[in-house]
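Annotators were shown the component list below and the corresponding predicted structure, then asked to write short factual statements about the assembly.
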Amino acid sequence: MKPEPDSETTQTPPADTPAADTPAAAEAQTPGGKKKRGGKRDDVALPALGLTGTLRWAWTQLTSMRTALFLLLLLAVAAVPGSLFPQRPANPGAVTQYLEDNPGSGPWLDRFQLFDVYSSAWFSAIYLLLFISLIGCVIPRAKVHWKALRSKPPRTPKKLSRLPEYGTLAVPAGTGLTAAEAARDAAQVLRKRGYRVEARDLDTDRPSVAAERGFAKETGNLVFHVSLIGVLASIAVGGLFGYNGQRIVVEGDTFVNTLVGYDTFSPGTNFAESQLAPYSITLDDFDVTFDRQSSTGNVQPLDFTASVTVKEDPNDEPRTETIKVNEPLTIGGTRVFLVGNGYAPVVTVRDGDGNIAFQGPVVGVPTDGVYTSLMVIKAPDAQPDQLGFVGFFLPTALVDGNGVSFSGDPDPVNPQLNLNSYYGDLGLDEGVPGNVFVLDTDDLTPLNNRDLDSGGIVLAMNQVQDLPDGKGSISFDGLLRYAALDIHYDPAKFAVLIFAVLSLTGLSASLFLARRRVWVRTGTNDDGRIMVEYGLLARGEDARLETEAEALRGLLEKKWMAGGAAPQEDGPDTLADASVAGSAGRTEESGKDD
Amino acid sequence: MPSIDYQLAEYSDLFMLLAAFTYTVAFLAFTWDLAKSSKTLRAIDQKAGTVQAAVPAKKAMVPAGAPTGPEGSNRQWDASSAALTADDAMGYTGERRNAARVAVALTVLGTLIHVAAVVSRGLAAHRVPWGNMYEFCTTGAMVVSIVFLLVLLRRDLRFLGTFVVGLVLIMMMAATIGFPTPVGHLIPALQSYWLIIHVSVAVIASALFTLTFAMSVLQLLQADREAKARAGGRERLGFLKIVPSAQSLETFSYRINAVAFVLWTFTLMAGSVWAEQAWGRYWGWDTKEVWTFVIWVVYAGYLHARATRGWTGTRAAWLSIVGYLCVVFNFTIVNVYFSGLHSYSGV
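Structure shown to annotators:
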């Protein structure tokens, strides 16, 4: 991995084809140089490579730009299936459903980890290879850059006129300026403009100044890539020590931050239960505001506010807080987010013996914008038979032309429960964890539904309905709202943010800064005029090189000709001759193109 | 929450319609300019052709020049048309193109009306005018035409007019026909100052990607035409004469893409910060996040391709096109058909 030595670049500046120094060429210097070594078939395909040789070859291949590009594009393609198939971490229920609906293809998709794309072996392999390739590219580049940072600007090329930007100035005789002073002035101007400058041959008759700027471009590039590694590492740390959990809290309920307090909990690999701060959150009230002004007639939510009482510690004084969407509550090092809400009708189920088999709020799962909520009520304690109910809660029940009930508004204007009932074995006794929001009715006997003589159960608030065959009764006693809370703890998120900001800064520097070299050579003409020639060379693509040349020219003119003497544009012939004469004592190759 | 001004919203709709009509006429004028200019150029070429016929050796020399690279060969080849077309630096040449002038004037007028429409929509709702698909589309289209006009101040990109104004029209049609949404308040999930930061930058980045998409398509057509011309084949797609060389299209679209990529990176990061604020995690592979990431990676690939031997030129242009198709896919299909946390965008 040897980029072209700087001197070489400057000795043969591409006068007519600046394209040779486009980023393609400049950036490919590093990986491209490597590629040359690894890519030459004659060198590599010969048998006597040996183990180290093979490893070296593999490393060279992996860290080449071509491979990095390939891996990048592969990463883009590999990320797509995650948006096409349901993903376990985001929506485990949807995956189960998908597997049930597609018994043929589902297991095969699962075998190829298409439901866990972002933690799958193949996705991980791609990004890990990409990052290894990145590291393999960044380290040598950093070394080269470190050297470049400490090296002096490159030697002044013999023929400045061959540089992509070239110009001459002639300072009239009699100003008292000498060639060496002119060179010093030029050096000062360049230094002020942010160039790293070295004046040379000041004691000769052809002094020159070499200047270079824009090292921050490559620094930015390196910072960007290193920061990406930092982002990945921080995410990994967050995954190790962080945790998150979900809890549905009905009005009046209290969530205590212990493992049993969560409905679902995803700990990081290194999570310990002692990490949980002993705070508690009580949902006092949940307020919802809907927009009824809308001209479409669609009612859409305007505001959700959870008013809570929190205690940092069981012995602490309680204080009141609010949680809104986009306004999480920070407590005990964690953040509590409001991610959902809905209705929890309070019901009482009595069994055939007249005893209360179930009593309390039942969380309904909203299925649309008007909170038509899916209800599942399980009463495993009912005797002699366990009872189960499935149906809908309608906040504002209306009946359409076909006699089907629907909800006309998300607010509880006419709350109503529409349920089917079943009896039999609910399947809860085997200890197999089941979804509380799903009732498997396959092995149950229907008691109430629209197709039976008994009909479906329709309950308005404060109504009771007896079940057929003396199996019991169900009553709709009240209505509460609930809030779905997500509790997150991620100790590494600030590190992620810092690395992200660093990478953005680095990226901007690497894309928008220009690395440029400027040389100025001065001399005294026979008639006493001070002749100045300058040339600019961009390393990499630089659309503003011409502007920079103009700006420099303006600054030099201002420096020497502020007295009113018109700047003289001198024919390059004079200077070209002079430059040949002036460099006679030096040993560089010259006139290659002549 | 202040109530919505429906009267103003109606004016907004009216302005939107007027802007679309103005753009339509501008589109026709741009197309007329392309057709007219290429006709003029053909006439010049024919004249030059009769001269060339006298020197048959000249034609054979053109393919010989090909290996020196696209830049070198084009210059020679485009020399006859240089008087009229935007040159490789895409500066203005002082040549009068009346149809193009009318087209630009109409685009300016259309954009002003469009700005009035978008601003009145925002004022009517008392919020930023990008809270649903209709508003993303119309505001995005406005940003595209503003960016186009701003670039026109510095460069002669009038050859792009047909394509850019065409895309603006498509976006406005998609908004009014595909996602018509009456003005309304923001749902709680969108009530955040991050909406202003995240979405506005995303819209600007998308507008820039729209420009480079048009340029990349032209670049491919132009590269194909250049290759055919070098091989001495018959000339088709005459309007491309008014378009700069494939090489300079590539260089310029690279510069715009670099800016757009930085903005897209910012979009992605601001989105992450907002996601952390709203949902508790900065990245969760939600469908929208997946596609934002895919777009980012594709354009990162594009930038790397430009620095990889054998991947510049046509292949890089294809990556830029694929990236833009991903942007469009992310905006339309993902918003409308994929379920995810972002699927509240007003459809």
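Statements collected:
1. Residues 6-337 of chain B form one domain.
2. Chain B has one domain: 6-337.
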